[in-house]
Amino acid sequence: MQSPWLRLLEGFVHGSDALAVRARRRSSLPAHLELGRRGEEAAYFYLRRRGYTVVALGWRSAKLHGDLDLVAWEGNILCFIEVKTRSSRKVATAESAVDDEKSRMLCRMARQYLQALPAVPDLVRFDVLSIYFEAGQPAEFELFRGAFDWR
Question: What mean pLDDT do residues 41-52 have?
Fold first, then answer.
């Protein structure tokens, strides 16, 4: 069951985005990065509705280039979740963007994240969440649990 506070917060965030568009205030980000930002925002609420406890968004390391989109607990499993957002499937699926090079980078970032924890969890998983937008709104979510392993 979804918390009424989470529904309220999600509505507020999406409403704020819509108001910014109506006010014709453009994001300073290029369109594809703005779509990615909105996808990560939608991913947060999607995962929360499914019982995940999100502990980090856009986590960065001072030592490595890149970021971890979302880090969340699903029960006793610490999940590193890469979010891929697309406006269509015409060219390729969103999840296909997580190739070997990207998964190696995510594993390096995850190791850095784990080193900062007081204790390493017993179970760790790498997931990919594909999000497809239609008419400016998230329309379809596909969660690939265990999309890849440590490289």
Answer: 96
